[in-house]
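REQUEST FORM: STRUCTURE PREDICTION
Request ID: SP-0412
Submitted by: Lab K.M.
Chain count: 1
Length (residues): 288
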Amino acid sequence: MEDSSYYDLIKLKTPDGEIAAKELGKKKNQKKEITYKKGKMSIVYSNIPFFYWESLPDFKQAYGTLDRIPELDTYLWKNETEREPSGRKKALQEAGGMVNDAYCTIRSSESSKGSKKGDIINQAFPVGEELDTSRTKAEDGLVHVIGDEIFYSGKNGNQLKEELVSRWGESVNVVPGGSGTMTQPVLSVKITDEAGNSIDYFRKGQAVTVTLNLKAVPVPTPQTPVYQEEGNYSEGSYSGAGSTGGGYSGGGSSAETEPFADFGGTGGDSNGGSPGDTVFSDGEFFVE
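STATUS: Completed
RESULT:
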C-alpha cells in the first residue's frame, strides 16, 4: 500500500523547455534555482480521474465475477479537500493496478463445474472501508480474480504437466497418482498447497502439488489353457491311448465272442448229437 500527496508534480514548463519531476528530484539539481517568469512558466500536476468509495462493497458477494462489475464513477480533485465527479465512468480492469489476475485453476472442460476464469476470489481492503485510489493504492491490486484456466480433458499426464509448467512455472509440482502412468489420459486432478490442504486455484509462484488421477494401464486377460486327451476322435468310434485294437464300434458289443468248438461236423456225436450237427462248447447245438 502506497500513500501519495495531493496533486503530485509531473513537470515544470519553462521558456527553456520542460523539466520533469524526476529531474528536479535528483540530488545534483536540488540546490539549483529557477527564476519564475509570470505568464511564461507553468506547473503541471497530476489530477487524473480516480475511484472513490465511501464504503467498499464485498466484490465477491456482490458481483461474483469481474465481468459483472459495472463501469464505475471516477472523480477529480476540485481543491485540496474536495472531490468532484469527473463525469466519466471507467471499468475497474481498465485502470492500471486495480485488478490482480495472477491466479490459475484446473478443470475438465469449459462446461465443467468449479472455479472459473474471471471468478473474484479476494479483495485487498476490508468491506466497509473508505478508499480513495488517488491517495491510497493497492500494490497487489484491489480485486483478485482467476486469470487463467487449464483444461485436462483429452490430455495425458505428460501433456498436462508440460502446459502447467510452461505457463505457471516450476513451483507447480505435477505428480501421477494411483497405478496410472503419465502416458495415460487424465481423469481428474487434485491441487494441494504446502500444508497439504486441497485448493481450487493457486497463485503465480505459489508452491503447489497437482496430483493426477490417470487411467489405469489395461492388463491383458489371461487365457485359460485347453487340454485335449491324446487319441483319435471320430463319429461313432474311439481309439484311446494304449488301445490294442477293436475297441469301440458304434452299435456293437465290446465283449469278445467266444470261439466255436470244432468237432468235425461230419463224424459221430460224442455228446449225443447227430452226424453233421455243429456243436457249441457249452453243449448247445445247431441242426443244419
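NOTES: The first strand starts at residue 2 and ends at 3.
Reviewed by: T.R.
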